[in-house]
């Protein structure tokens, strides 16, 4: 388990403020945020490379906040891997083992071979690190970080320096490795796909703060701000005004109208006034005829653009505000979707998430 | 044109010395002693510059602290001071009648007209070269390599010894060789601090003023050959990206 308790860090003029987050033992958590949000600074602070102004870092219940990096037992893998260029692959992996208690040369060799086997880099052990591919470098860096059996593994944008095909393979391998080693892992990334595919937990960072945390699918489905919605790629984020049309129920929520320019939607709200409507593209239903009455929002719209993305087709619609819907290629073909075509758009009031 | 201006005089000097003249110069006991003294003092000055300058260079490369820019300026100051001026300043600072010089003299360390004066003059002019070279070498080592090493359990010193120094080593060595070469060629400050015993540059000057050009040329050629050998060595050890 790793727990961050009210961390405050200053690097130059940049501040991390009140960072609190917990990764359970054996869990895989991700911190996501745009470039400059403070993700790498946070990892450095956890690893002991940036001083804390306030707060505590607890690794498996042990307060490591005042310990130097070498006594924290936190392995770190940076974005560019930072393999030691003057050492071979095997020497890189073995680097931390000289300090691991009880590890003699035989134990070191056994551990290096075991990790190399697990990561599929046994053939590289005698090679220098110059000339390794991005994927190979990443495997070596992970093996090196895991070798001394750290209590927590910290990963800084581990897939940023590899091509998309390698990224897919490495993501899968990393998940398998995480399950095999059972190590508590905290990864920072700017890619929400990593969170959806790898994470049990996710925290979204912006300008040195954690703005939302929870299970990845919950953050994706129910972002708590327009920023998070846009960042995690929820889809349509429309600014407008909420006006109450019904009485509040037992949960305090009420039927309302969301107005943005000429776009009007029936929604379920818990407050009136300015808000953003977050609508997932797959929740926008398209039909050649008006949809059934259970769907409160039925609007006739014009197709502006059609974009084929493999099995999914993204359709940009003029509906008072531009909205993007996602349909299957079969649906797109059945409806004859192309620019200028008029179709009916259906959207359940409950599918509009207001923030 | 500039290349010709640099290479021309050196080639002319090399061809001035006859093999027999060089042979007799090599057998000249005064010149031998002078070159040995020069090499010994330059080595001592470089060793002191390395012992004090490498930690300073690391600090200047890695740490950000108030007064860092001032410190950088002070380290480079000897480069812009005319060397006779440096000699006079050192004479005033290390002479018997100064507080520092007097205290050191009472401990048996005399500078003026003694060998330590030669080392002091060489150190003053060569230390900036070594510190700059070492600082540049440390800057090229990514601090994240050190962070990784620390996270793998290495202490600050262990990480410096096993990661930083091996990676910056060639740059530091190149800076050290250049500093040594600069020490060997020093004249201006040494002539004021310690005219005798004579280092090679002063011996050449002495022979030129006393006996004219033919007497100075063989010794000058020998010193030039030492300088060229050092230059070749620097090119050999310099990190590839600097070549």
Looking at this protein, list some descriptive labels.
heterodimer; A: 355 residues; alpha+beta; Rossmann fold; OB fold (Dihydrolipoamide Acetyltransferase, E2P); 2 domains; six-stranded mixed sheet; five-stranded antiparallel sheet; 9 helices; 20 strands; elongated; B: 243 residues; mainly alpha; MetI-like fold; 12 helices; 81% helix
Give an overview of the whole structure:
The complex is a heterodimer of chains A (355) and B (243). Chain A is an alpha+beta fold. Chain A is 25% helix and 37% strand. In chain A, helix 5 links the parallel strand 7 and strand 8 (184-189). In chain A, helix 3 (105-119) crosses helix 4. The model of chain A has no long low-confidence stretch (mean pLDDT 92). Helix content of chain B is 81%, strand content 0%. In chain B, helix 2 (19-26) crosses helix 12 (213-237) and helix 5 (83-94) crosses helix 7 (115-139). Chain B is globular, with a radius of gyration of 20 Å. In chain B, 39% of the residues are buried. Classes of the chains: A alpha+beta (355), B mainly alpha (243).
Describe the secondary-structure layout.
The complex is a heterodimer of chains A (355) and B (243).
Chain A: E1 2-11, E2 14-23, E3 28-32, H1 39-47, E4 52-59, E5 62-63, E6 74-77, H2 89-94, H3 105-119, H4 134-146, E7 152-156, H5 164-181, E8 184-189, H6 192-198, E9 201-206, E10 209-214, H7 216-221, H8 226-232, E11 236-244, E12 254-260, E13 263-269, E14 273-279, E15 285-287, E16 297-309, E17 312-319, E18 321-328, H9 329-335, E19 342-347, E20 353-354
Parallel strand pairs in A: 3-8, 3-9, 6-7, 7-8
Antiparallel strand pairs in A: 1-2, 1-4, 4-5, 9-10, 11-12, 11-14, 12-13, 14-20, 15-19, 16-17, 16-19, 17-18
Chain B: H1 2-16, H2 19-26, H3 29-62, H4 68-80, H5 83-94, H6 99-106, H7 115-139, H8 143-151, H9 156-184, H10 188-193, H11 200-211, H12 213-237
């Amino acid at each position: 388990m790793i727990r961050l308790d009210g961390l405050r860090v200053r690097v130059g003029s940049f501040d991390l403020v009140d960072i609190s987050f917990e990764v359970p033992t054996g869990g895989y958590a991700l911190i996501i945020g745009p470039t400059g949000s403070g993700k790498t600074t946070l990892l450095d602070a956890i690893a002991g490379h940036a001083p804390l102004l306030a707060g505590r870092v607890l690794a498996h219940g042990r307060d490591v906040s005042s310990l130097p990096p070498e006594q924290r037992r936190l392995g770190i893998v940076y974005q560019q891997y930072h393999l030691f260029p003057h050492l071979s692959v095997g020497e890189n992996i073995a680097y931390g083992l000289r300090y691991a208690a009880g590890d003699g040369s035989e134990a070191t060799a056994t551990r290096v071979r075991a990790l190399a086997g697990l990561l599929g880099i046994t053939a590289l052990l005698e090679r220098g690190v110059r000339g390794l591919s991005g994927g190979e470098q990443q495997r070596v860096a992970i093996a090196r970080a895991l070798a001394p059996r750290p209590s927590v593994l910290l990963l800084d944008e581990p897939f940023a320096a590899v091509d998309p095909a390698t990224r897919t393979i490495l993501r899968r391998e990393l998940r398998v490795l995480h399950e095999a080693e059972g190590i508590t892992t905290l990864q920072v990334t700017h890619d929400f796909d990593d969170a959806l595919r790898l994470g049990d937990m996710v925290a979204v960072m912006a300008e040195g703060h954690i703005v939302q945390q929870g299970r990845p699918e919950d953050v994706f489905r129910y972002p708590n701000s327009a920023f998070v919605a846009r960042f995690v790629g929820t889809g349509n984020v429309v600014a407008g005004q909420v006006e109450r049309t019904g009485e509040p129920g037992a949960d305090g929520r009420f039927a309302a109208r969301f107005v943005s320019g000429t776009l009007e939607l029936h929604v379920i709200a818990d407050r009136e006034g300015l808000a953003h409507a977050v609508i997932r593209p797959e929740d926008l239903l398209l039909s050649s005829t008006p949809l059934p009455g259970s769907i409160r929002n039925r609007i006739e719209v014009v197709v502006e653009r059609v974009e084929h993305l493999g099995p999914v087709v993204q359709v940009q619609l003029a509906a008072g505000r531009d909205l993007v819907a996602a349909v299957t290629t079969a649906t797109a073909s059945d409806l004859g979707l192309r620019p200028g075509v008029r179709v009916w758009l259906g959207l359940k009031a409950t599918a509009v998430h207001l923030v | 044109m500039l290349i010709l201006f640099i290479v021309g005089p050196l080639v002319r000097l090399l061809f001035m010395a006859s093999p027999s003249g060089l042979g007799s110069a090599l057998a000249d006991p005064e010149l031998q002693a002078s070159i040995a003294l020069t090499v010994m003092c330059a080595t001592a000055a470089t060793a002191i510059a390395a012992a004090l300058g490498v930690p300073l260079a690391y600090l200047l490369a890695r740490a950000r602290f108030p007064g860092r820019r001032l410190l950088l300026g002070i380290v480079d100051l000897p480069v812009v001071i005319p060397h006779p001026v440096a000699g006079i300043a050192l004479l005033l600072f290390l002479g018997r009648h100064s507080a520092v010089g007097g205290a050191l003299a009472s401990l048996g360390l005399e500078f003026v007209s003694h060998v330590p004066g030669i080392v002091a003059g060489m150190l003053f002019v060569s230390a900036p070269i070594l510190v700059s070279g070492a600082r540049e070498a440390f800057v090229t080592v990514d601090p994240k390599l050190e962070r990784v090493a620390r996270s793998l359990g290495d202490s600050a010193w262990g990480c410096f010894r096993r990661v930083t120094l091996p990676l910056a080593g060639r740059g530091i060595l190149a800076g050290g060789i250049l500093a040594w070469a600069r020490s060997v060629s020093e004249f201006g400050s040494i002539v004021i601090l310690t005219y005798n015993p004579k280092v090679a540059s002063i011996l050449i000057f002495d022979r030129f003023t006393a006996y004219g050009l033919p007497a100075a040329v063989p010794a000058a050629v020998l010193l030039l050959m030492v300088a060229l050998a050092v230059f070749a060595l620097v090119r050999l050890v310099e990190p590839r990206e600097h070549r």
